Amino acid sequence: MVRFLLNNKEHTLVDIDPNTSVLDYLREGLGRVGTKEGCASGDCGACTVVLGQLAGDDIQYSAINSCITPIGNLHGKQLITVEDLKTDQGLHPAQQAMVDCHGSQCGFCTPGFVMSMFAYRKTNDTPERETIIEALGGNLCRCTGYRPIIDAAVQMYDPATEDQFSGTEGTTVKALRSISESTTPVELSGAGRHYYAPTSAAELSALLTAHPQAMLVAGGTDLSLEITQFLREIDTLIYTGRVEELLQIHETADTIEIGAAVSYNDCKTLLCNEYPDLHELIERLGSRQIRNQGTLGGNVGNASPIGDMPPVLIALNAQLVLRSSAGSRTLPIQDYFLSYKVTAQQPGEFIQSIIVPRAKADYTFRAYKVSKRLEDDISAILGVFHLKIDQGVVIDASVAFGGMAEIPKHAELCEQALMNQPWNQATIDQAMAALGNDFTPIDDFRASATYRKQVSQNLLQRLFFETDGSAQQVRVTQYA
Amino acid sequence: MRNLPDVSSSKPASVNGVAGQDLRHESAHKHVSGEAIYIDDMAAPANTLHAYVGLSQIARGKLLSMDLDKVRSAPGVVDVLTLDDVPGHKDIGPVFPGDPLMVDDQVEFWGQVLFAVAATSYEAARKAARLAVVEYEAQAADLTIEQGLENNSFVRPSHTQKRGDTATALKSAAHTLSGEMQIGGQEQMYLESQASLCVPQEDGGMLVYTSTQNPSEGQKLVAEVLDIPLSLVTVDMRRMGGGFGGKETNANQWACLAALLARKTGRAVKIRLARADDMSATGKRHHFLARYEVGFDEEGRLLALDMDLSGGCGISPDLSDAIVDRAMFHSDNAYFLPTAHIKGHRVKTNTVSNTAFRGFGGPQGMVAIENIMDNIARVVGRDPLEVRKLNFYTDEGDRNTTHYGQTIEQHIVEPLVARLEQTSDYQQRRREITAFNRNNKVLKKGIALTPVKFGISFTVQHLNQAGALIHIYTDGSIQLNHGGTEMGQGLFTKVAQIVASELQVDINTVLCTSTRTDKVPNTSPTAASSGTDLNGMAARDAVCKIKQRMVAFAAGHFSVAEEDVQFANNRVTCGDHDMSFAEFAQLTYMNRVSLSATGYYRTPKIHYDRESASGRPFFYYAYGAAVSEVLIDTLTGEYKLTRADLCQDVGQSINPVIDIGQVEGAFIQGMGWLTTEELVWGKDGRLQTVNPASYKIPAIGDTPTEFNVELLPDSPNVEATIFHSKAVGEPPLMLGISVWSALRDAVASLDDYRRSPSLDTPATPERVLKACMEIRKGATS
After folding, report:
1. d(CA B727, CA B721)
2. What is the 3-state secondary structure (H, E, C) of B589-610?
3. Which of these, B351, B212, B320, B210, lies nearest to B681 by C-alpha position?
4. In angstroms, what CA-CA distances link B596 with B477, B500, B522, B588?
C-alpha cells in the first residue's frame, strides 16, 4: 500500500501499475489536468509539482518533475499541484505575481513555473536573482524570454505574507508522521508489475535476492526515461529512498560518507563547503527538480560516460561501499566502471554509500563542466583536477574526465606528465600533449571528437591560468 | 426574450482596458491556476479512442511490405488506418501537392507517417504503433543542401530579384569579398506538442478541436480527406500552448488522421504526439546556405550584391516558396543595394519538410546580409556600426527603393539606431570593451548593434483578409469572434481592447471566444505577424457597423444629431439623455435594432509581380535595433550574453506590456536560433536532437542580467493600420542577430579586429572555439 497526502487529503494506492508516473496519475487518474506534459523526460519543467516531506517538525518543500517520478515514490509525502494553490481568497502570491508581471504568454509552461516559484518562496526568506535562476533553471519557457518571470519571482515576496500551507503545516506534519509510523509494507502491484520501498539495507538485500531482475529506483530521473521514452515495462521496481542506511551522511576527520540515496540537494552544501569549486558544477548538474530527486548513488550506479559526479569522485579517489546479502565491500570508485554501462557491481549488490575524502591542505581542486547551454545541459566534456603543488612543483596529480571515453576515468598520461614537474607553462604544454593521447573521444550531437579533445586540453590551460596568481577571471560562468 | 436582464445604471468615471492601456493577457489568471484548457486537457466524450502513428525508420526507400498484424492484435487496439482507407484526398500539401497523409510506397524521410492506430489508451496506442514489421529497400538520400544542389533537386523553381548591372559594379568596385555561410534551422519547440480531438457529428460531419494556427485550412483538409463538403466540418481552437509557425500547416496531418479514425470507428479520437515524435515528424525553420559576392567602396558603402540563398526545404514545397521569397525580400535588411542579383533556391532534401517559423525566411536573409556588413567593416577598418549606418536607406539621393522596387516611405531606422546608440551608451562601452580585451588573455568581450527592417503582409496576396463576428447582448455584454488564433501572443486581448475602445466600455464586458470556422469562415492562418492588423480591423469593422446602427437609432429616437450620440466611460449620452451602455443596448434591442454584425478587412495597396520580381509586397515595414554585449571564453568557446538593449518600432502600441513581451520573447528566441539551438541529423537521416535534453533552447539563465527594452515612442504608423499600430510578432526575433554579431566581434578582437571570423550558425561553443582558433592561427600579433 502507498499512502500520501494529495494537498491535505490522504490518498491510498494499492492496485495500480507501478510504472505509472505521478503526472499520468494526476492527469488520467485524477483528472487534474493543470499539470502539463511538455517532454516526459524531465527536461522542460512543465510537469513540475511540489512535494512536502517531513524534516523534523517542519515540512520541506521541493519541486520535482512529475513526469519521471514513479507513483510509488509519493509514499509518506504531501503532493501539491497547481490546483492546490488558489483558494477562495484568491490566487497564491506566486500566481498573482505571475499575472501582475505578465509572466505568461501561451500559458503551457506556467503551472510548472508557478510550482517552482512556490517551492522557492517556501524555502527562501528573500528573493535573489542568482538563486531564482538556480531554482527555475529547469523550467523552459518558449514565449517570454524569462525577464517577467524573474520579476514575478521577486515580486511574489511583496507582501511576504504566509500562505495557506503555513497555516496547515501542523496538521500536515501530523498526517505525514502517522503515515511514516505505519508498519504496513510500502508496495504496489498492478498490471502484473510490482514496486517495493524497503526501509533497511537488509530488506533491500532480501528483495534483490528474491527479484534479481529488479531495477533500483534511486532518484529515478534516468530510469524513468526507459518507461516514458522507450515504452519499456519494468516488472519490478525497488525504491531506495526509504532505506535508512542509504539516507545517512557520516562525517569523520578524514572522510564524508554519503548514503547512496541522498539527493544532490541534500548533500550539496556539505560537498561545496569541502570543495568550493563543486558549487558551479552541482548547480549546473541537471535542474533543481532533478537535483531534488537525483542521488549520488544513482549517478554512479547508472554508469553513464557523461554523468557529472563520477569524474569528480574518481579524481578525489573516493570509495564505494557495495552491499549484498553476503555482506559489504569497499571499492575504489575508478575500479567500479569497467566498460560502457558495465560495472563491478555483482548481481544482488547495491551501492550503499560513497566515501569522499575530505579536502586536504595545499591541494588545488577544480571541476570544469563544458556544455552547449550553461544550465541544465548534459556535459560535452567534464574535467576534474586535484593537484598538490609544493614549492612550485607538482607532487600529486589526479585528473579525471567524463564525456571522453566509454567510461569516466583518470587521464593517466596527463597525470604522469604533471608529476614532479615544475608548475609552469612548459609543463602545461607537455601535459596537454599527453592528455591528447589519453582519450579517443567520439563525435555526437553534443560535440565533435575534435572539440572534445581540444577543450579537454584547454581545461588544463584554464587550470594553470586560474592558479598562476594573476587572479584574472577565465570562466564566463564566474565573471562578474 | 420576454424579460430583459437587470442592468446597473452606475456612472463610472473611466473606462478600463481600452486600446493603448497596459492590460494583462486575457487568460493570465487561468494560466497561473492551471484552469486554461488545452486540447489534451479537454473533457473528452465517453469512449474516446487514442490515436498514434507508426513512423518510417529510413531516410529514403521503397516500402516493400508493412505487416500490421501485431499492431492490430496488441492490447487495447480498436482499429488501424492506412492510406488505402482514406476515402478522399491522400495528399495534404497546403499549397502544392507533395505531402502524402501517409506513405504509399515511397518513403521520403525518417519519421514519415506509415499508418495510424486507434486504441483505448494513449499508452496502448503508442506501444502498438511500434509493433509494425516493415521492410524497405533503401535508396540514396540527399541530406544536405549541398547534395540537393549538386543533384539539381528542388521542390519549386528558383526565383531571381535583380536590380542594375551587378557584374559590372562588382568589377569596378574598390573592394570585393566573397564567401559562404551555413545558417542553421530551428525547432519551434512549442511547449504543447501537436494535438487534436475529433468528434463525429450527424450527417457524416466532424467537429475538430485542434491546436492549430490555421483553422480554415484544417477544416478544408479534414473535409477533403473525408470526402465531404467543408460545411460538414467545424474546427474549434481556443488556445495553443505555443505555435511559432509550427502549427500553421503542420497541425493538419494529425487532425486529418484523427478525423479519419473517428469516421472509421464512429468514436471520438484524440491524437497527441510525444515530444520526440513531434520533433522527428514535423517541420522546422529552414536551414540555408548563403553564397555571396559583394562589392563596396573604400568607406564600406555597398555597390553590388550577388547572392544565392538556398533554403533546405525537406521533401515537399509546403510553404517553402513564400519562405525563400521572404528570405530574398530581406536580403537587404535596412541597407540600400545599388545593384543586386538575389537568387533563391528551394532545395529538396530527404528530411522532414521544413515549414513556417516566426520570421518565415526573413531572419535567414537578414543574417546573411548582416554577416556581410561585419565582413566589410573589417576590410575597411571601421566599427561595423559605422558601416551599417553608412548603408541605411535614406530619403536622400535616390537611396530609398528596395531591390524589388518598393519605396521606403517611413524612414525610421536612422533615428531609431541613433537613439539606441545613445541610450545604450554604445560608444563608451566600445572603448571599455577594447581596453578589456587588451588586458584579458582568456575572456574577451564583444558588442554589436544590428538593425531590423521587416516587411509586413503575407506575400501571398489573397491571405491578407480577415473576418469577425460581434454580438452585443441585452445586458451590455459583448461576444467577439474573429479568424485569428491565440497562441500566447495576446491577440485575443488586443482585439478585445479594440472593440472596447470603439464602444468605450470596460474590457471585462468583452469576451473573445474560441476561433471557430462556423462563426467566421474562410480565414487566413494567424501568421506573418498579421493577427492584430487583420483581425483587429475586421473586428473594428463589425463593431462600427453595430455602433452606427445604434447611433442612427438614437439620433432619431432622441431627436439629436448623430454627432451628439457619445460613447464614453461605459455610458452613452444622446443630447440630454445619459444612460449606461447596458441600458442603451436594451433600448436599442427593444426598438428592434440588430446588435450583431460581421466585419471584414482586406489590406490595401499591396501587389507583387513575380515575373518582373517587383512591386509593393508589404503594406509597411516594422523596424527595430538591438545592442548586445557578450563575454566569450577563448579556451572553450563558452559564452554569455551580459547585456542587451532593444528598441522596437510598434507604431502606436495597442497594449505596451504585451508588445514588450513579444519583443523580449522574440529576441531570446532569435538568440537561441543563432547560438545553442542545434539540429543534428545522423548520416542515416535520423534527427538526433529530438527532445529538450539534446536540443537546447534558451533557459532562464540565458536572459541577460541587464536587459533594457523600449518601444520606440511617438512613432505612429503612417499607414492606416488599426489605431496606427504595427505588427510585433516576428520582427523582434531578428534582434537576436546582434548576439551572434557580438560573438563575432569578441572573436575578432583576437586579431585586433583586422579580420572577420567565419561563424556559421548556430554559434555553439564549439563553433565559437573553432572561430577563435582560426583567427588566432592567422593573427599577426
Report:
1. 9
2. HHCCCCCEEEEEEECCCCEEEC
3. B351
4. 12, 15, 19, 12
Question: Which one is catalytic: B187, B293, B629, B730?
Answer: B730
Instruction: Assess contact for A214 and A238: CB atoms under 8 A.
Output: yes
pLDDT given for residue B602 in this prediction: 97
> Omega into A148 within 30° of 0, i.e. cis?
no
Contacts of B440 in chain A (CB under 8 A): 472-473
Judging contacts by C-beta atoms under 8 Å, the chain B residues touching residue A465 are 441-442
Q: Crossing angle, helix A449-466 and helix A425-435, to 10 degrees?
A: 160
Q: What are the Cα distances from residue A450, in Å, to A438, A442, A453?
A: 14, 9, 5
Length of chain A: 480
From the list A39, A145, A445, the residue facing B680 with the nearest CB is: A445
Q: What is the C-alpha to C-alpha distance for residues A183 and B758, in angstroms, rounded to an integer?
A: 67
Looking at residue B493, its pLDDT comes to 98
What cell numbers appear for B717 in the block? 504608423
B730 is catalytic: yes
In the chain, the amino acid numbered B13 is A
Q: What is the ipTM of this complex?
A: 0.98
Q: Kindly give, in sequence order, each residue whose CB lies less than 8 Å from that of residue B462, ignoring residues fewer than 6 positions away.
A: none
The residue with cell 488505402 is B84
Give the residue from B636, B728, B747 with the most A CB atoms within 10 Å of its CB, the best one to mutate: B636
Residue that has been written with the C-alpha cell 527479484 in this structure: A211
C-alpha cell read off for A370 = 563544458
pLDDT confidence tier of residue B724, bands split at 50, 70 and 90: very high
Q: Which residues of A touch B694 (CB under 8 A)?
A: 445-446
Task: Report the chain A residue with the minimal C-alpha distance to residue B639.
Answer: A476
Residue A213 is placed in which grid cell? 531482475
- Tell me the C-alpha distance between B136 and B60, whole Å: 9
Spatial strand order in the sheet of B620-633: B443-456, B620-633, B639-648, B706-711
CA distance B250 to B355: 8
Query: Whole-model pTM?
Result: 0.98
The mean pLDDT of chain B is 97
- Share above pLDDT 90 across residues of chain A, in percent, rounded to a whole number: 98
B contact test, residue of A33, A142, A467 with most B CBs within 10 A: A142
Nearest to B242 among A102, A143, A477 (CB): A143
Report the share of chain B in percent with pLDDT over 70.
100
